Amino acid sequence: MKLKLHHINLCSAKVSEMDRFYRDVLSLGDEDPAELPPLNQEKGLVGDVSFVTDGDIQLHLTPRDVLNSFRSGHVVNPLERGHIAYRTDDIEGFMAHLDAQGVPYSDWGTDAVKGWHQVFFYDPEGNVIEVHQVVDMP
């Protein structure tokens, strides 16, 4: 199973101000629309997101949402403080690896992003980590 850094998610009450900062100060730009995650708006789990990139790694700027875990029914809340995300080519193998390591995780499936099977878990300091695989949707 291969992991590659895919994006960093920062949560803020000031998404538009953060967007301007990363664009103006760090000169980050727009991502190819084909590379953007197809958010599942029907579930209402993710608000208005700004996507910027350096050309290799995406930065997702999302509204802070401390109640996301309650609405989603998942223990790990990726929208409280943000998270770092890796893409894998074998999500089932990665979940088996987490199980073998004794690391608890929330399996979000494709609830938040259509076509991305996502799992979220905490590192020893409480930072949220996402691992996802692009999957075919029925």
TrEMBL record:
PROSITE patterns: VOC (PS51819). It comes from the Bacteria. Signal peptide: none annotated. InterPro entries: Glyas_Bleomycin-R_OHBP_Dase, Glyas_Fos-R_dOase_dom, VOC_core. It holds the Pfam family Glyoxalase. Residues 4-134 form the VOC domain. This is Glyoxalase-like domain protein.
